């Protein structure tokens, strides 16, 4: 029985191939005169900003371009961007890119409207009024940040991620143009696509799930399962690119509109990204099958529905077998994004650090916990926080970080805040 739930959506969403070339009429509704484009170096190098700028200049002045958003948006980058926006006299922020540029733009609006320190607004519903108008134009199909009321910003000094949540953070308009995703490399296509899948899965099994978010999540899972592999291996095909862009947007609606309910996979992915600057989608992809296995004992019926949405045949089979097939379907991306036997494997554009790199980046040593599994010793390191039981990593014998993290086995754990917990590894 459902006693109460809340679901809210703010941004208007427009979808059409080539839409960025003709967005002038939409800008008029926002009453802005001077736009600042926020992006990252990759988007600038791909030449995507030229199209956006040309489309904007048909009806508004482009006051400047801030293309300094880092791969993991940072407090320093937000402050620089806000200062530049003030210098330009911008009254509209147009974010072009993946989650980092869009989250950077969201956080810039906090400083432009409220002033002060960004840290003062970390948390849930601390904003009380509308912010500087914003348009989001995603160039990846993963974060769904163009429709969410969240922003995640990395504190470089503390090496942790700060979360900001408010309905006022959501952009005023989301432009979904699949042509803007055609230049995304295969590795990033796969990684960001799995990020969207995690949004959908964890919102479906999360504590804030409701009938509306459930419908959105299952639709996103179905679309991603049917299109991510094709979008990864043939990036020039506009159809799977468009389907993935819509699915990412729907998954973002599912977890944001339903109250921002995500889970263990995102918690660990944010922790790892905050400490080691690991690509967020890659961390999610590595951890997802283990998180699914860990959580499936709590809500097996929901994970069986996820498996069916992925295309697993459930006819006459036990729930446990259906769930296991669903996890195997996701594991290593074999059914979704990679390992297609009929095509050569491609090494993605995501370069992973070695264990030695991670140790050097860790700097001050965290608290170390050692446990045993059979005859093998395992080590986990976490920053000071409340810990009872924790996930652990086997000893590293491979040179590849990806393979090492892929061996994660989830133990029962509680009390590790996603903004402070982080994993370090040793040989």
Largest sheet: 6 strands, parallel
The fraction of residues assigned to DSSP E strands is 5-15%
Strand tally: 11
Radius of gyration: 21 Å
Shape: globular
**Whole-number mean pLDDT:** 78
Structural class: alpha/beta
CATH class of the domain at 12-181: Alpha Beta
Strand neighbour order, sheet with most strands: 1-9-6-4-2-3
Number of helices: 14
Which H/E pattern describes the elements? EHEHHEHEHEEEEEHHHHHHHHEEH
Q: Work out the helicity level.
A: 40-55%
Judging by the overall fold, what is the CATH architecture of the domain at 12-181? 3-Layer(aba) Sandwich
Describe this structure in words.
With 427 residues, the protein is an alpha/beta fold. Among the domains are: 12-181, Rossmann fold, CATH 3.40.50.1970; 186-262 and 296-333, Dehydroquinate synthase-like, alpha domain (Up-down Bundle). It contains 14 helices and 11 strands. The strands form 3 sheets. A 6-stranded parallel beta sheet has the order 1-9-6-4-2-3, sandwiched between helices. Strands 5-8-7 form a 3-stranded mixed beta sheet. The N and C termini lie far apart (50 Å).
